[in-house]
Amino acid sequence: MKLSQFDFKLPKEQVALYPHSIYREFENENGQKETFRISRRDEARMMVLHRKSQTIDMYRKDEKGNPMEGQYIEFRDILNYFEEGDTFIFNDTKVFPARLYGTKEKTDAKIEVFLLRELNEEMRLWDVLVEPARKIRIGNKLFFDESGTMVAEVIDNTTSRGRTLRFLYDCPHDEFKRELFSLGESPLPRYILDSRPMRDTEETVHADAEDMADFQTIYAKTEGAVTAPATGLHFTRELMKRMEILGINEAYITLHCGLGNFNAIEVEDLTKHKMDSEQMVIDKEACDVVNAAKAAGRRVCAIGTSVVKATETAVGTDGLLKEYDGWTNKFIFPPYDFGLANNMVANFYHPLSTLVMETAAFGGYDIVMEAYHLAVEHGYMFGCFGDALLILDD
Question: EC number(s) of the enzyme (predicted)?
């Protein structure tokens, strides 16, 4: 397929800058009105696509099965579509505070360093992106705190914006990581930060402590992601408890989501696009849970595009999930013959995104693009904090 087939007009106001929330107004001690935000992750909208019948549901239904216009399906309704013995596969990767701000030695020029991954614990080597890249050269020293104790030296250029840093911090590794991460902030995508209002005291928009919690799934466990597995952000503790009561099984895999998900595709022919590699692990416990559900003829639902990518990397020719510990650069776009999950949930994503392409491959190009056009028309929210699309195999 061609890149241009995944283009559509997305109004700026339909890009979600925060998780689905409600807002409360109160009067402070000075008599001034202030507004505070309360996240309601599982109350985001959820559209339901039935890929065999080629139908789309947006509204809840009455007792006679008729859609009730204006009463949109919400994410917390997802359990209405599943039964005891079905299995959800989650990505338990944990986002770390990857975005740091510092200064360059001698010039005090302000720089942004985005941590990608640790290359060597003992030598404190990290693969990073820097901005502005033209000012950061091999041999430069970068400072990240006022005391000057957290210092890094640039030792290699890897790409136009990529650098290898060696942190000059002599202490046990756990202490180093703790101190380094204490200086970082939530790695929200640039399209979110750049669209938020800037505070009067800031020269650039910063994420805050609340963002770190918002940009983390409640079941995050294995540290290593620089962007969240966004569909999982809709799950709350209450929803997970309801799953347990209903008897829906949980399987956890790990895929450390990278920035490659946001890279622009620069070729019209999708077969020529190369994805960045992401580290992933699927253990025996996850395989046992998923394969038992498949053997029993139960539904297996992948929660998010990262889960689909991981399971399609590790599925065998027999349709069963295999243990895996390595990397994947799998790029899924239509047409694609899926081997494992028969249901999936995804967010609504930006035009020309690889995530839209993977969703279209799973649900079918025509019906998924119809769902996207309906989402734009009806004011659904897009992006990491956006609304959800449930694709059912019925």
Answer: 5.-.-.-
* 289-294 average pLDDT score: 97
Is the per-residue pLDDT at 14 higher than 70?
yes
Please answer whether residues 135 and 112 qualify as being in contact, where contact means their C-beta atoms are separated by less than 8 angstroms. Answer: no
5 pLDDT more than 80: yes
* Residue 183 DSSP SS3: coil
Q: Where in the chain is the domain with CATH 3.40.1780.10?
A: 3-95+213-392
Determine contact, residues 386/18, Cβ cutoff 8 Å. Answer: no
Fold observed for domain 99-185: Thrombin, subunit H (2.40.10)
Tokens representing residue 161 in the block: 């914006």
Nearest-angstrom CA–CA distance, 100 and 130: 10
Q: Find out whether 320 and 291 touch, Cβ atoms under 8 Å.
A: yes
> Structure pTM?
0.93
- Dihedrals phi, psi of 67, to nearest 5 degrees: -60, 135
Nearest to 46 by CA among 18, 74, 85: 74
pLDDT digits (tens, 9 = 90+) for 217-243: 999 999 999 999 999 999 999 999 999
Angle at 21 between CA 370 and CA 367, to 5 degrees: 10
- Cis amide linkage into residue 189, ω under 30° from 0: no
**Ranges of CATH 2.40.10.240 domains, the chain:** 99-185
In the predicted structure, residue 71 carries a pLDDT above the cut 90: yes
H-only helix segments in 236-304? 237-246, 284-295
Domain covering 3-95+213-392 in this structure, CATH number: 3.40.1780.10
